[in-house]
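SAMPLE LOG
Freezer: B-3
Tube label: C17
Construct: single chain, 257 aa
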Amino acid sequence: MKPAGRVVTLAPHLAELVCAAGGCKRLVAVTAYSNFPPQVSRLPQLGDAWSLNLEAILAQKPDLILAWDGGNSREAVTRLAKLGLRVQWLKVETLDGVATALEQVGGWLGTPDAGQTAANRYRASLAKLRDAHRNDPPIRVVYQIETSPAYTINGKSPISEALAVCGGINVFKDLPTLSAAVSQEAMLLAAPEAVIYGGEENTSAMQAYWARLKSVPAAKAGNLFATDSDRLTRATPRVLDGIDAVCAALATARKRL
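STRUCTURE (predicted):
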């Protein structure tokens, strides 16, 4: 198949994967919140991952569209495929899956060597991180999103896997859905020893939330840590930086407990 020359990505992490696999110059348009590498911020934006502007996508005349399996509207993307556009769905469910995604994207772009090099580099760095933190003492953690109500993730989320690299035990790993709201009562019963939340969250609201739950070990110790959610939640090589930051936060948390 002819290498793609005009690529459109339908989620921020897909733009990052394209660039990591050697295809940044082939990107012609992205979706909102695509901000890494910095140059993709200057590209036309085609709506966001959940509300795509199909007319704007067609106007770009792409020869490859990368779609987020699990995030984009399947109906909208199927319409694009029915119009004869080449669509590739991509789903990354684990940390190891990032390397596989880099290889796949490199193949679709016609940059297999760059994709393979990036995948190999990622695998080596992930293995090094896992080895460095293999003996970290376990600590009970919640990854918190918002406060009214608080949301979190279950054990099937790659974020939960990232916490585990650092010895973090996801206190809500058994939730029935990938993400869900949790009550203050449930948070009290879960008794996390550390809280990790995205830096884009309202810090004042987060602190006020935990002031109401001051009997929880995390609140008692002041173990509330903001992190760069783009690094930690996007399935790209930058997740390694996110994990590194979480490991440092949890090391601090252990000392405070």
